């Protein structure tokens, strides 16, 4: 739990952590998820000393965005990400494909 937080945030942290663990997330990952969530809420409400621009100025939360930003940077998904997607789809010849060929093979 971050230093300087109040009882409400401590309860929120425990609630998020327990929920993540019930869903099968490891304890370490559950703590990370809970910490990040609580820190973002603290930043949005002005309780944190410092905050990133996305924490304070983003009108939508991550769950509301629904993955809108995932892999949509300048180059989209990386070759490794496309390769993993091709592997899951069992596409033949994927190991010798470049990024553009993988993109076409997986249908992006």
Structural notes for this entry:
The chain is mainly α and 108 residues long. It has 2 domains: 7-59; 72-108, no CATH class. 56% of the residues lie in helices and 0% in strands. It is built from 6 helices and no strands. It has helices at residues 7-22, 27-44, 53-57, 62-65, 79-88, 99-106. The longest helix is centred in the first third of the chain and has 18 residues, at 27-44. The radius of gyration is 19 Å and the shape is elongated.
Descriptive terms for the model:
108 residues, mainly alpha, 2 domains
The backbone outline, from C-alpha atoms, is elongated
- Class from secondary-structure proportions: mainly alpha
C-alpha-based Rg, rounded = 19 Å
| Overall tally of structural domains | 2
Please write the string of helix (H) and strand (E) elements: HHHHHH
Unreliable segments (pLDDT under 50, ≥5 consecutive)? none
**Biggest sheet character:** none
Q: How much of the polypeptide forms β-strand, as a percent range?
A: under 5%
> How many separate helices?
6
What's a concise summary of this model?
With 108 residues, the chain is mostly helical.
Topology:
Elements: H1 7-22, H2 27-44, H3 53-57, H4 62-65, H5 79-88, H6 99-106
Helix pairs in contact: 1-2, 5-6
């Amino acid at each position: 739990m971050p230093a300087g937080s109040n009882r409400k945030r401590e309860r929120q942290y425990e609630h998020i952590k327990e929920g993540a663990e019930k869903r099968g997330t490891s304890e370490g990952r559950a703590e990370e998820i809970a910490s990040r969530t609580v820190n973002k809420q603290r930043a949005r409400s002005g309780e944190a000393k410092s905050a990133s621009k996305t924490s304070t100025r983003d009108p939508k939360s991550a769950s509301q965005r629904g993955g809108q930003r995932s892999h949509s940077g300048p180059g989209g998904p990386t070759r490794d990400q496309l390769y993993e997607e091709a592997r899951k789809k069992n596409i033949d010849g994927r190991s010798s494909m470049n990024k553009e060929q993988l993109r076409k093979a997986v249908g992006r």
